[in-house]
């Protein structure tokens, strides 16, 4: 009985300690972010999309395998820059037949246009932890200007891999017809809402160009 009680108390203490450790490592004030060069951490970065399906339901899916770089300067947000790439064949829904269709020629044409890319051209801080990131989105072989609404979530040393990580939540609404994807409009909405959970790991203090050549 004593052994069981000690085990229970130890388990409770251990479970309570993890949030305390995590919160001690994470800052939520964007002015405290470490400046520097970051890379996307793909295991915890994902992009969700949603469309209105035949006026009945909001249908959602995911993209993964994101790669990219972030040059971040919290003291001069306008000097920051972002460039990311997404393999469109990573599209995931709850319907396997639909996933095959979405990769096909009438939708994403993943074989012909394997990547979607966003490259920022300007950053404008709109609040302590919020910014508008304007840039060019290339999808389905067409480039169109779009804007990300970005909210800083937190930054600190990841307690598992010991790497300094910064995280953001971002949203963007696009019209797929702007990119030549017009299948089933208006029955499936032209507007597509994107939401990005973005994690970035800080790299060594060398230039992005030299990092890209590695």
From TrEMBL:
Pfam families in the cross-refs: YceI (PF04264)
Q: Which UniProt keywords apply?
A: Signal
Where the record annotates domain Lipid/polyisoprenoid-binding YceI-like, the positions are 37-201
Q: Where is the signal peptide?
A: 1-24
Q: Which domain of life is it from?
A: Bacteria
Write down the PANTHER family for this protein, in alphabetical order. Answer: PROTEIN YCEI
Q: What is this protein called?
A: YceI family protein
């Amino acid at each position: 009985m004593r052994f069981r009680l000690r085990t229970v108390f130890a388990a409770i203490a251990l479970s309570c300690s993890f949030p305390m450790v995590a919160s001690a490592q994470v800052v939520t004030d964007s002015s405290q972010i470490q400046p520097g060069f970051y890379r996307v951490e793909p295991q915890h970065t994902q992009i969700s999309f949603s469309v209105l399906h035949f006026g009945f339901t909001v249908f959602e899916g995911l993209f993964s395998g994101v790669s990219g770089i972030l040059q971040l300067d919290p003291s001069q947000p306008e000097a920051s820059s972002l460039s990311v790439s997404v393999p469109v064949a990573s599209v995931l829904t709850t319907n396997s037949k639909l996933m095959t269709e979405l990769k096909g020629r009438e939708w994403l044409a993943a074989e012909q246009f394997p990547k979607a890319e966003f490259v920022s051209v300007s950053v404008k801080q709109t609040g302590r932890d919020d910014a508008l990131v304007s840039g060019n989105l290339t999808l389905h072989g067409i480039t169109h200007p779009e804007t990300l609404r970005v909210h800083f979530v937190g930054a600190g040393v990841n307690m598992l891999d010991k790497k300094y990580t910064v995280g953001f939540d971002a949203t963007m609404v696009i019209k797929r017809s702007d990119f030549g994807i017009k299948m089933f409009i208006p029955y499936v909405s032209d507007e597509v809402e994107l939401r990005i959970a973005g994690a970035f790991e800080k790299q060594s203090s060398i230039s992005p160009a030299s990092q890209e050549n590695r």
